[in-house]
Structures
1.
Amino acid sequence: MTLVYVDNVHKAFGDLEVLKGINLSVAQGEVVAIIGRSGSGKSTLLRCLNQLEKHDSGEITIADKQLDAASMSPKELSENVGMVFQSFNLFPHKTVGENVCLAPLVVRGEEKAEVEKVAREVLEKVGLSDKYDAYPAQLSGGQQQRVAIARALAMRPKVMLCDEVTSALDPELVGEVLRVLEALAAEGMTLILVTHEMSFARDVADRVVFMHQGRIHEEGAPSELFSNPQTPELKQFISAVL
Amino acid sequence: MIEFTFWDILRNLLLATRWTIVLSLIAFVGGATVGLLLTFMRLSSNRWLQRLTSLYVDLFQGTPLLMQLFLIFFGAAAMGHPISAWLAASIALTLFTSAFLCDIWRGCLEAVAKGQWHAARVLGMNYFQTMRHVILPQALRLSIPPTVGFSVQVIKGTALASIIGFVELTKAGTMLNNATFEPFTIFALVALLYFALCYPLSCYARYLEKKLYDAGLR
Ligand SMILES: Nc1ncnc2c1ncn2[C@@H]1O[C@H](COP(=O)(O)OP(=O)(O)OP(=O)(O)O)[C@@H](O)[C@H]1O
Ligand SMILES: [Mg+2]
């Protein structure tokens, strides 16, 4: 079943055309890794998927609902799409527990006791149940990013977008975050991740998408794509990053 | 001529200090109220409201407080509605304070990282929910040190009200000097009294600044 469907999406910033007709469909439970050079439009694509940027033309459909001009409120969108950022973006004035509970409480108006129970569950899942009352500033980068993942999970999105979620971390902290994502993938969560961690893309993704100059230049199963790249651009990219 | 002992002078200055404090409080409370209103006008999506607020802020930041005071005091009289020095000083200081506080607070709201807006938005929060739960609490904490710091400027600003004849600390000092011709003693005492009002506030602002820093918010 197709969960995310992107059809001929274009996006420009002024004269700069960043997305030049993206076509992509992601099935329920699929893990898609997006790779590509800096400036190729990876983040812009993710940001269009949750409407942090409005695409200029084309269609984006998520869970059979079209995402365009005001057809989906932030609230409705959050029921479908979750996002984790490179810079964590935790709320620094709130504890870990409060960070996780805030949106279910104020956006969904759910019962407090129920929300707290869910918060403890998702924090358990990311291995941070003992940090419920800590503030973000008291945590390491890896822990903060895991809280951010838990916070997104608490909204029970159908698909999670991750934009270079390990790029801001010290090398020794990258593993703990990737393991959490791997566990999510194994549980059947639909993931679309932009990543520079090629070994992670190879081991965990069902499909790798290589973006180049605003287009999807090549895509396929990671084993295929990495061992047998078809285009010179991907060959060059792979030899540069591996 | 009446003889003034040191204690008479001090007692009179202390009595006048009351009015400096009262005027400062009026300016601060009035200025904060108007300033808050202006801050939200500035944040509104209406272009005209934004421009109007910017103009207001620029106008009051770009002219001396003394001129504002004169314009209100003498302007009201010239238009046939003379007002007391009290009222003129209260209005001028309120307007002046509101312009600065608006600017300080807008800066604090903008200082909250953009990523906070994005995070709240992808969690499904609308503008008001984001403001209420994410942006305002952080901006509020950021705003306390500069706001307390600015209150020192307000206190010193009240000294200008002496020029239109309002008897606060500075004016009392001038009047006592005219009667006693002991300018050094008197103005040293006046300065000391201002210092006693302002210094604790400065220290408090610095303490709050440090606390913020420790909380990892900066
Ligand atoms: N809000 C914006 N306004 C103007 N230009 C933008 C904006 N966002 C992105 N761009 C430009 O669009 C292009 C693609 O940016 P994007 O962030 O999607 O690239 P990316 O593939 O994620 O790169 P990176 O690997 O460096 O994160 C870049 O040239 C960038 O400068
Ligand atoms: Mg990017």
2.
Amino acid sequence: MSEAVPRIAQIPNLVDLFPDKVQPDTRPGYQGYLVGREHLLEVVQRLRDEYGYDYLSSVTGVDYLPEGKMEVVYHLYKTLGGPALVLKVQMPREDPRVPSLVPLYRGAEFQEREAWDLLGIRFEGHPDLRRILMWEGFAGFPLRKDWREPYFEEEAKPFKSRWPEGFVFRAEDRNPFGDNVQYPPGFDPETWTPPDDEAIYRVLKRASEEDDLHADTLVVNLGPQHPSTHGVFRMVVSLSEETILDLKPVMGYLHRNHEKIGERNTFLQNMPFTDRLDYLCSMSNNFGYALAVEKLMGVKPPERAEYIRVMMAELTRFLNHIFAIGFLLNDLGAYFTPALYAIEERELILDIFEAVSGSRMMCNYFRFGGVARDVSPDILEKVRRLVYDRLPRKVDEMDEFLTRNEIVRERCEGVGVLTAEQAIANSASGPVLRASGVPYDVRRAEPYSIYDRLEFDVAVRYHGDIYDRYLIRLDEMRQSLRILQQVVRDIPEGPIMTGKPQYQVRVPPGEAYGRVEGPKGELGFYVVSNGKPNPWRYHVRAPSFINLTSLVDMARGAKVADVVAILGSIDIVLGEVDR
Amino acid sequence: MNENEMTSPGYEIPPELRHQVTITTLERIYNWGRANSLWPMMFGLACCAIEMIATAASRYDLARFGMEVMRPSPRQSDVLIVSGTVTKKMVPQIVRLYNQMAEPRYVIAMGACASGGGPFKEGYNVVSGIDKFIPVDVYIPGCPPTPQALLNGLIALQKKIKRQSLRDLPWYQKGPAEPIPVPVLGPDLMDPRKFALIREVTHRQAVQDQQEGEVAHE
Ligand code: SF4
């Protein structure tokens, strides 16, 4: 075994493997390989089948306007662990086409649709290339660098109107409509015909004609305003009697243009915006973004800050999982009682967050090279009491009340099954992946911060049903408490910041992909800097967005009443799904 | 007229009936009943919705004010708490939900986003405040507003209801109320009330573009 470890960490030299098809990316600060678009499928297929790169983590596009190029960036991993293999495909801006990777990795489906929606990159061979976050008929591809939003003021912040001159005006006053809208010149709303927004109903699978029962297919819309979609999420299902034949998720009802705004912001200004991605777990979002930018800057936080970071991230994981379990039970019909128990514990953790950062939910606590404020001894004492005494008891209590409950087991066992192969192909991550029997955890697979020093087990369950996804959250809560106990025991004294706190950080040109094991799964931030105060590209690999790819596989064949519980067991937060 | 005078009936209760009978105005008892059983719609949009849930939970306990009955259906709810960022893709649904609510109905804009666009205001898919489409009764600042702030906003709404007069409220007049026209998703969000303006401006832009094109051509 001992010699296998370095082999996993090795990235094969693609230039030797695929001469003439691949070249190394030699731009300063960049890594990985450039692949010709006509060779992409072949190269990726061999990497997957022969070299074990079975997990496609992230697909995104970058618009290099000055060079007149578009680029698609792929991050491939092995589920055995190890660093990323980064592939890039470049193409002229006028002709942005690449072959779709959906035939090889189903997990690319939503991410490619997103790149089509926001950047206008056409993925050839994609089974269902429609807009995903915006609606059909929206004018333009908003993440292109030459596309301007209606409230456009300047390319980059801080805007001159705010600082240094300081003549602030209302954006409404400059827009001819007095509102956040713009239309193509000569546009007439009366003669405008809506584009095909029924398309979604056509791609749904129906009962087959040969079926001798002649059953009708019923199409039902759940959401976007539905009490159990956890926000503004919509599902279109086709039913044969009560059984689900097919399901299409529809998202974008909370698309808040995180990435466009993020590319106008300075690096530090993005920190509070990451809070609002997965608004239950602001601390882990901060963590991922801080890691990505620190990789670019080449700074490392001091020891105490690392401990504080891990403490906050694990408290967040605990809080998220207890909340998820509470609301899963809500979806199962245990109306609000378990959720109330969960929220009670959550409040206690929020008190700690409020004490260290000043806000209950939107903590904005991490800085590049450290954290914003120190944790005082009394707060540490509070954490100690929580993690040694109260929270372990509460986990046991949940376990005792729920795990062997007849109704919970009836509704959850064997329902919404996702096999390990499906989970990997769908790029599922976090509890969803681990409940299907794949022990993949970024904290162990590619350790960051101080996780390599901490003792904990990667929880794994093997059935891939709702019940296992519930159990794995209990397991992970226990592991988090174990980590927290070590952290409060060992936290050293010392500074909490490397260097002086700065408003404007210097980030050298290059790209970085920082990922953490968030409570919902692998949360990645892909940041490209061109040396200016603002990121050139800022992309979030949102775990709950990509985990939704598996929803169809879980729901097919289940009853319509179960789909609500299945969705609850994936645990999505719309702020992160839609960004 | 101060509030005391306005609500006292000006009628002596015979001594033997005191402690058993109270006399009040119809308006006052009606408003009192309405204000203390406001049923919010179970409708969460974004981050602020999590604080709304926290407000309903045990530590802050919305039930103390008669509002714990969250209804998932607009037909059964009295107050729409717009708790989060209103996007262009979502606003047709919100307007439709508002139209479906039975009168009397109230709207609370919770948080910076619902009140005026919030941190995401400059985004291309974000509506600068729900009041561009539906009338708002109470605005609650904050990002997100703390549960205390939400409670304060709800109490402010109760006070507002208690001061309303049945005589001039629009929903106690004869005839049905006009529904709010539902916005349409075109190349961008289109408010049917502004079609004329849209046509005028885009026409002007087209003419301008043409002239510029001609100038460039020469
Ligand atoms: S006001 Fe702040 S907390 Fe509320 S929805 Fe907007 S961004 Fe989220």
